From TrEMBL:
GO terms for cellular component: cytoplasm. This is RNA methyltransferase. Residues 18-224 form the Bin3-type SAM domain. Its EC number is 2.1.1.-. InterPro entries: Bin3-like (IPR039772), Bin3_C (IPR010675), BIN3_SAM-bd_dom (IPR024160), SAM-dependent_MTases_sf (IPR029063). PANTHER family: BICOID-INTERACTING PROTEIN RELATED, RNA 5'-MONOPHOSPHATE METHYLTRANSFERASE.
Amino acid sequence: GNFKKYYEFRQDTIYRINTACKIVSEKFNLNNKQKLECLDIGCNSGNLTNGIYEKLRNLIDPNVDIRITGIDIDSTLVEKANAGKPANYEKFIEYQCLDVMNIPDGYAIKNQRFDVVFCFSVTMYPHLLYGDEGLDKFIRNLTDRSDFIVIEPQIERKCYHEQKRRMKRQFNMTEIYRDDKIDWSRNPLTKIEGTFESCGYKLIKTYESHGSTWNRKVFLFVKQ
């Protein structure tokens, strides 16, 4: 997953919160809706997830019951996320240590459909670990969760190289990554868009992130 304190020092965290909530409030049909269930994949220590919930709570009709579930593969980060939930919203935010690529039987989330899925800066990890097939499987897992997906993919090759160097420097681990299974003649974004399209999703809007660390874009894909 993302490294520790990822959302504690990223200057674009506020941008992500604002963009995610703007998309939901403007593009999602909330008419006569009594409950809004959200899933944040790769929630890290919960800072971004908590921020999204709090801002949505201020934007949306108070009669709408908003729930958000954050999942991350790192148990230490999930433990920190659970400890850091705002006291006044504690029962509306849930954190679980799960790998979206392989959710075990017995978890309600395994077959649950959410109104909205958020996925910020996660796509590089399954891509590095499992190659192009892994990236394709990851996106298909997102489409299994919702018809309304807000995603900020990592598409910079420099970012991939930095992650490999970091793993080698900190853990002396590089052999887990499968560069040999990544076709670099095609940009990761092209692959992501192709998988969404094959699953019946359409790119509705692209949101710019001027001034953020990587200048990454946020995309809204909706099931047609």
